[in-house]
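Sequence and fold
=================
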Amino acid sequence: MSKLDFLLEELDTFHRRSAAIAYENDCLVHFNDIMQLPSGEQVRVTDMLNDGDAVCKLAQRYADGKDVEKNIGYALQLWQHAAEFGNSNAQYALGIQYNQGEHFEKNLVLAFTFFELAAKQKHPAALYSAGLCLENGTGVLEDMVKAVAFFQESADLEYAQAVFKIAELFETGKIIESNPKKAFSLYKIAADVHHIAQAKFKVAYMYEHGIGVAQQFKEAVVYYDRCYLPESYFRLGLMHKKGLGTMENLQTARGNFECAVQVGHVEAMHELELLSTPAEYEIESEHADVFWCMFHDIDRYDGESIWEDVILKKWEKFKDAGQYYSELKNRKCVYKPWPPTTWFELDAFFHAARANESLISLLHPANPRFQRTNFTLDRYISLFEHVGFDIHWPAQFHPFHCEVIEVEQTEGNDVEIVETLWPEIMLGNMMFSRAGVRVRAPRHLLTKGIADRHCLYWCYARDLRTSSCHESDSDSIAFRRDFDLGDRYAYNVDGGSKFEITDLTNPFEADFVDSDMSVEERISLLRYRCAVNVEYPNFESFWPYEDYFEELK
């Protein structure tokens, strides 16, 4: 394609509103290139190049990779070109680049220079950024008076962060005279109009303590509930605990404290311990104990009528436990696309999982008790439906949904389910127990004798497999939460008992962790919960319990 054709295609593509930019050897078309075009095209292309807004929009497309291949180098050249013509958006973009030093050599003086150029043209974000530079003495001498002027001008242009900043200055009395009423008024604008979470928290706190506004506990509860910040969950927990602005509700208070604890709020952890009285913990334990007792009863039972003698005797208790698991199933997500949980609740899941493994064992043909008891697949399903879990039968093989029980080696490139011995059990979108399947698979995907016999992690015991490693350490086999998030699967979201999560989705973090396994092997181990192609002789040295991974569907 000739240079002229490329230019004309760009002009058509961007409807004569984007910059007519062509690239030859990764460079912009220069003036000499334009002069070689026919005179009519020279005028048209020159006009387009002089359209700073169009050039800046095209730069942003390359920076974001929107409808074009992402190329930050092109974006920077285009921003520089537009900035030379005085485009404030381009000047602000270059200020950000020089301030961050990600693609240019970091130069705080140049960053402020570009912010100030854009600020002179009333660019709201540039006014705010220039104000920050002046406040902190970044790239320019500190000048608090001029900084406030920039912040105020940006706020007058309704720039959200500037509105919050001016409110903060009025609250603290830093630089300008303290004025709690003005601070509250501006915080409320930042909260209600611009939806800044920290501003919502400030409004709630001022309502709670009567700062700059009449004390109104009810309004404080409303705004705390909208923040979704660790401290707001803690404050909301206290208000539910004390019955301030809302009815006293220890269960709701506890739920809020738990949300704060999930992100390491120390005071919330203390409050949670105070609420975990022996009576409340006994309720938690009761739901865990019904499964824990069943696990031990099945293990000790030597008769044939296990359904009547063990399971039906606990039927009413299972029904009560169902209400508990229903609350966990319907719990709202907070910071992440899966709901928060406590160690008490993970412990309850762990006990239920151990009981489930005993029941699965009774359905496994390799177990000597398979033919001796009257426990059937239908009864297995009816038990978990009675407790409120969801039963699914996977139509296609996927390691999120399926546990490999036996492999029949075949040719091809697909794994085919031959028989499903038991279904998968889910609680909402959380995987509780994978379906047990016999499959046909090629050796390069699943190797017979490995995929169906290797140690199964996050499992206490399974017939025909090596016992789960580290089984003497309860933390290592604690319940693992996997979620079907609709567009992706999330594996081991709690990342082990130490909260030292290794996100295998992040190549840097994955490579940083010392391990004898490659990232690909660790991801495979996380997805299948066992080796599938390579028999690891030292499998007990592997520690996958702190790995976390998200897989797009």
